[in-house]
Design goal:
11 helices, mainly alpha, 2 domains
Length: 222
């Protein structure tokens, strides 16, 4: 009985690992159960046995991969909550870029999330809201801190989108690196340099938005 249970745990893990690779490469719609099972060295019925369906497997992969890159590159960068907001913004941007440019397991996991941005699947609607929602809220709170209390919700949202898209658009898919950046890989130092550039660029934009807020302008005049 113990041997059977151990085999089941190992098969489930192999299926998760294989599914991560296939979903990252092909997306949810084009990924097939047969290919996942073949890569995992498992019977084609194994997915239904261990997960119940392709949708349920995808949700489990999403949760597993989300935890993987959150642990590898935490958005706070290890900074305390009372660190200067400019430093906390850099930490978030740097963490996102490290995930994007990771060519190992973490990067593979993160590409599933990138594919979801391009072509969101109904299977992940609830999980996306549950897992990503709190982190987006933290980013918006940080943006509001930098913009000031007079900033509108719309201004905060637009600034958040602008910052995040700078991080994702530079390397939305691995295959476009040469076209966008002129090289296949970025060193750790280059990723950090890019993070500092995006942070500096974003802080300049945030200052411009803050100065354009009517209440801030009227106070400056008076």
């Amino acid at each position: 009985m113990r041997a059977n249970r151990k085999d089941g745990v190992e098969t489930r893990k192999r299926l998760l690992d294989a599914a991560c690779g296939v979903f990252a490469a092909k997306g949810f719609e084009d990924a097939s159960i047969a290919e996942i099972c073949e890569d995992a060295g498992a019977n084609v019925a194994a997915v239904n046995y261990h997960f119940g369906s392709k949708d349920a497997l995808y949700v489990e992969v999403w949760r597993h991969t989300f935890e993987t890159f959150m642990q590898a590159y935490p958005l706070d960068g290890g900074l305390p909550a009372d660190a200067p907001p400019e430093d906390r913004l850099f930490a978030r941007i740097h963490a996102l870029l490290q995930r994007v440019f990771d060519d190992g397991r973490v990067g593979q996991c993160f590409r599933i999330g990138l594919r979801e941005l391009v072509n969101p699947s109904a299977a992940l609607e609830d999980s996306r809201r549950e897992l990503i929602g709190p982190h987006r809220q933290q980013t918006r709170e940080l943006v509001r801190e930098l913009l000031g209390p007079a900033a509108s919700n719309e201004a905060v949202l637009f600034c958040e989108i602008s910052i995040i898209n700078q991080c994702l658009s530079v390397n939305f898919f691995k295959e476009r690196r040469s076209f966008l950046l002129g090289r296949e890989r970025l060193s750790k130092q280059a990723v950090e340099d890019l993070a500092r550039h995006i942070t500096m660029f974003s802080l300049g934009g945030l200052r411009a938005v803050r100065e354009a807020i009517p209440e801030v302008r009227s106070n400056a005049i008076s």
